[in-house]
């Protein structure tokens, strides 16, 4: 072999040995395991804080995002039930249930509703299993009196109905038309609803333990289940108000 050949041979990179590959793989697996354990410990601490505070802390927006993020985040005016935002103000105001601006986050199987993005825990959560989000025509959209964060005074808005599988309206969300917010919300609801339904099927078949879930997802679902109990009651509808009014006596004396 010539001197040039020897020099070229010496400069050629050597392929890693099998033992080196195994060591590298073991180290990568060890790091992943370490990160997973650390994440589980953090969310276990957050869940303990959530329980100690009776649901009023330990579940901030940042904590629910976790390392994997959320399916959707944004501001929306939220109205409970099927009545119009404005048509039922006379009834909703007397019951303290007027439409207000909230920060919304979807993760796992729930839609979390926060007073604002800095809240220590969601005000309540909405179960999304067997739910669908339906965008309403522009003439049915409610324009908020106060523009949403980041929205200009001439920004348009879109109202979305969150409906049950039977078509009953449980909530109305109004979003500013910025970066297809309403469409993204509807897509996130569809994914969360499908995931929740698939999980129910796995539970019935006894397969729910076969798939390992991220610690952040387990935490989000646990918080969602607890805070779903804090949902506001549906406001009184006009039909219910009329039904509760005493009948007018039209008889003659």
Produce the secondary structure layout.
Layout: H1 3-11, H2 18-52, H3 61-65, E1 72-80, H4 89-94, E2 100-107, E3 110-114, E4 124-127, E5 131-135, E6 157-164, E7 169-176, H5 181-205, H6 215-227, H7 238-244
Antiparallel strand pairs: 1-2, 1-7, 2-3, 3-4, 5-6, 6-7
Helix pairs in contact: 2-6
Distance between the termini: 128 Å
Q: What does the radius of gyration come to?
A: 26 Å
Question: Beta-strand percentage?
Answer: 15-25%
Q: How do the SSEs run, as a string of H and E?
A: HHHEHEEEEEEHHH
The mean pLDDT is 79
Task: Give an overview of the whole structure.
There is one protein chain. The protein is an alpha+beta fold and 253 residues long. It is built from seven helices and seven strands. A seven-stranded antiparallel beta sheet has the order 4-3-2-1-7-6-5, with helices on both faces. Helix 2 packs parallel to helix 6. The longest helix is centred in the first third of the chain and has 35 residues. The protein is globular and about 80 Å long. About 5% of the residues have low confidence.
